[in-house]
């Protein structure tokens, strides 16, 4: 079966089930080697500063789509199945753009649009992909393994008496606190999500409300940024009035996380995100895991 994936999330699920796609999105970067596959799209967003990238996204969305599809690649790989997403046309190619493109091509693959807001949605996405590619048993087994890892973290977190107020930034300028599955991860790791509830959509943050809420732990994991890039752009938060007085800053509990690998994508690595968050909340200063860096 020839499978095309239009998002990093779909691609990672495929590989976790032992299926290599024939083409992927330009933003797919895991597992190693996936960058060698044909890519079906390019992005209209290329700015470095968070505010400039945000503006480019808004302009591209108003004029059509953030991404351009390479129709010739899609035609050449002759897909039987296209994994796309119905959740967001900003972070990856979505179902509407795929439908528009396929309408002009002489290929007629099945299109499976995935959507996730909470961990249970991730598990269901894995099962849906498994059924679509003939790996249903493997998908059920993988979901069972992931749920067991979540239970292990929750049991460990239950032994801690403190439940710090935790803020996870998905974007720095304008500032946005991560919603969807992230508040659920915070709760499972023994923290208290700041200003967001499980399943809430990510939205722009009122800075004064954030200051008043007094986060005790801050995790900065911008969408698509690795740790180096996050650290280089931290000034986009740190310049704001009141930043230096925040409890998390005063206590040296501000962490940068590879958002491209963890937190941003609804993939099996969300459980690795939970395990990293668990390590952060234990505040073991000398044993931070890969992909996590103390910034303050």
From TrEMBL:
The record ties this protein, via PROSITE patterns, to: FE_B12_PBP (PS50983)
Superkingdom, taxonomy of origin: Archaea
Q: Which residues belong to any copy of the Fe/B12 periplasmic-binding domain?
A: 2-285
Q: Which Pfam families match?
A: Peripla_BP_2
User: Which InterPro entries does this chain map to?
Assistant: ABC_transptr_periplasmic_BD, Vitamin_B12-ABC_binding
Q: Specify the protein name.
A: ABC-type Fe3+-hydroxamate transport system, periplasmic component
- Source species of the chain: Natranaeroarchaeum sulfidigenes
Q: Which gene encodes it?
A: fepB3
């Amino acid at each position: 079966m020839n499978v095309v994936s239009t998002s990093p999330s779909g691609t990672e699920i495929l590989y976790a089930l032992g299926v290599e796609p024939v083409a992927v999105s330009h933003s797919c970067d895991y597992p190693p080697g996936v960058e060698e596959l044909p890519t079906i799209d390019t992005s209209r967003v290329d700015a470095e500063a968070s505010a400039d990238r945000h503006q480019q996204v808004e302009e591209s969305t108003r004029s059509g789509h953030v991404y351009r599809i390479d129709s010739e690649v899609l035609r050449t790989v002759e897909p039987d199945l296209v994994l796309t997403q119905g959740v967001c046309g900003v972070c990856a190619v979505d179902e509407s753009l795929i439908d528009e493109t396929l309408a002009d091509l002489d290929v007629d693959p099945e299109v499976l649009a995935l959507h996730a807001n909470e961990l249970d949605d991730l598990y269901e996405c894995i099962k849906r992909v498994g059924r679509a590619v003939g790996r249903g048993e493997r998908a059920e087994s993988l979901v069972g393994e992931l749920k067991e890892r979540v239970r292990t973290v929750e049991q460990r977190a239950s032994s801690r008496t403190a439940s710090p107020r935790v803020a996870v930034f998905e974007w720095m300028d304008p500032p946005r606190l991560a919603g969807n599955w992230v508040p659920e991860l915070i709760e499972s790791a023994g923290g208290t999500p700041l200003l967001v509830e499980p399943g809430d959509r990510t939205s722009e943050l009122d800075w004064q409300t954030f200051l008043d809420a007094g986060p005790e732990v801050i995790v900065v994991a911008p969408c698509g940024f690795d740790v180096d890039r996050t650290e280089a752009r931290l000034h986009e938060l740190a310049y704001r009035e009141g930043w230096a007085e925040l409890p998390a800053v005063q206590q040296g509990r501000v962490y940068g996380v590879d958002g491209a690998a963890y937190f941003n994508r609804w993939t099996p690595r969300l459980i690795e995100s939970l395990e990293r968050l668990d390590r952060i909340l234990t505040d073991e200063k000398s044993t931070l895991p890969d992909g996590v860096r103390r910034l303050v």
